[in-house]
Design brief:
Bound molecules: protoporphyrin IX containing FE
Number of strands: 14
Strand content: 5-15%
Distance between the termini: 30 Å
Largest sheet: 5 strands, mixed
Helix content: 40-55%
CATH architecture: Orthogonal Bundle
Shape: globular
CATH superfamily: Cytochrome P450
Number of domains: 1
Structural class: alpha+beta
Low-confidence stretches: none
CATH topology: Cytochrome p450
């Protein structure tokens, strides 16, 4: 019991450390983006550093940097993976993954690895995990809260994505609590990038230990799975069977990829959940529409990732001399695509500052765009849909708790609400 309490606390602390690290300056982020979009749509300078947010781009020598605020410019860069590359990510986060992080791959290497992994993440495969995810939401988390009639939804939101991924991957279900340890390690890895050079050395050591611990735990499961045969339906089994152009993944590659998934899958879903629930609970009529017609949830999730994307920007590096909006970007220069601004560009979205699930949907950048677009988006959507459906089924008349502070979506990067206090009948 004491161990569970301390692992829970560790997880909460790691989550809030990462939130503090990436929250940046205390500004009205969307208002600032609007101002930049109108007055300085191609900004010459390091906009992200100006906000005090650590990035991979900033940990080595300063490089010429521009920030893009308009949809058309962001789209042009995200679509053009040949000229705007990701390899530099290996200098930061990627260093913790032996260079085997898909997000840091370019060109043919990325194409081959993505083709190997993609089938395991397509709806045909992801849909088969739906009953298991529904069971996790209901039985491992929400059923036991029903008699309390009040809760902070983020106590659930912090845990369910990693618990669900833990189940989807096929980790042993006789020790389901172990996912908390995995989640703590995953967050410690994200804390490995710091603004303050003084803190960097210590953060790197901690991240290094977390990376190794997670790898060892996962590798053990992968090796056991391979030895036992590879005909299961879970993600590890699917990756063991995956084949593209005659190439299969070895145990080291499966373990490394699975490890890199945990930070990608965990807190992104947690924060998106906090924003979806905040936006719904602030709009009781919409919440009622959703309660009556659950098919609306797909639109609610799409509109949330447009309106409040977790990752407010994506960075790319120019592979050769380029020019955007009349501004020259030399080879090696960094391009900051401010997707939270592009998602609210009034030239593309009518009334962009309104949360409107009935709008005609157009591609936004909440799950990225182009070759690196989120491979786990169908998993995330199934988890979010399952979590919200279960909440609506089990908590009658769920609404904001009038006795506690209303949730606030905040942060200049990794946006979301820290707490979402609710009551029900
Ligand atoms: C609501 C939750 C999620 C959000 C908002 C999100 C967002 C994103 C975004 C914006 C990117 C593109 C990054 C870039 O272009 O630089 C991305 C990539 C990625 N995501 Fe997600 N993600 C979510 C959930 C997940 C889940 C559940 C998984 C795994 C099961 C996952 C795995 C990945 C991976 C592996 C990549 C890299 C793909 C590549 O480089 O080809 N994500 N995600």
């Amino acid at each position: 019991m004491t161990e569970t309490v301390s692992v829970n606390k560790q997880l909460e602390n790691s989550f809030s450390d990462v939130s503090d690290l990436f929250k940046g300056a205390d500004v009205d982020f969307h208002a600032l983006c609007r101002d930049m979009r109108h007055n300085s749509p191609v900004y010459e300078g390091d906009f992200i550093a100006r906000l005090g947010i650590p990035t991979n781009a900033g940990i080595h020598e300063p490089r010429p940097t521009v920030a893009l605020f308009k949809y058309k410019d962001v789209m042009a860069v995200m679509k053009d993976a040949a000229n705007f590359t990701n390899g530099f990510i290996a200098e930061g986060l990627g260093a913790f993954f032996d260079g085997l992080i898909i997000l840091a791959m370019d060109g043919d290497q990325h194409r081959r690895v993505r083709a190997l992994l993609q089938p395991a993440f397509m709806p045909a495969s992801v849909n088969s995990w739906r009953p298991m995810i529904d069971r996790v939401m209901r039985e491992d988390f929400l059923l036991r809260l029903v008699p309390d009639k009040r809760a902070d939804l983020m106590e659930f939101g912090l845990h369910f994505p990693i618990r669900a991924i833990y189940a989807v991957m096929g980790f042993p279900q006789d020790d389901p609590e172990k996912y908390k340890q995995y989640a703590g390690w995953a967050l410690t890895m994200l804390g490995g990038i710091q603004n303050d050079p003084g803190k960097m050395a210590e953060a790197k050591i901690k991240a290094g230990i977390a990376v190794k611990s997670l790898y060892d735990a996962i590798k053990e499961v992968v090796v056991a799975r391979r030895a036992a045969g590879t005909d299961g339906d879970d993600l590890i089994h699917r990756l063991l069977r995956a084949e593209y152009e005659g190439k299969k993944l070895d145990d080291h590659e499966v373990a490394t990829f699975v490890r890199s998934l945990l930070p990608a899958a965990g807190e992104t879903t947690t924060r998106t959940f906090s924003s979806v629930m905040t936006l719904l609970l602030e709009r009781p009529e919409l919440l009622e529409r959703v309660r009556q017609d659950r098919s609306l949830l797909a639109k609610v999730i799409d509109e949330t990732v447009r309106f409040e994307p977790v990752a407010t920007f994506k960075v790319r590096q120019a592979a050769q001399d380029m020019e955007i909006g009349g501004v020259k970007i030399p080879k090696g220069g960094m391009v900051q695509c401010i997707v939270a601004s592009a998602n609210r560009d009034e030239e593309v979205f009518e009334n962009p500052d309104q949360f409107d699930v009935d709008r005609r949907m157009k591609p936004s950048f909440g799950f990225g765009f182009g070759t690196h677009m989120c491979i786990g988006q169908f998993v995330a959507k199934i988890e979010l849909t399952s979590a919200i459906n279960t909440l609506l089924d089990l908590f009658p008349n769920i609404r904001l708790d009038p006795d506690r502070p209303a949730p606030q979506i905040s942060g200049a990067m990794l946006r979301g609400a820290k707490s979402v206090p609710v009551i029900w009948d």
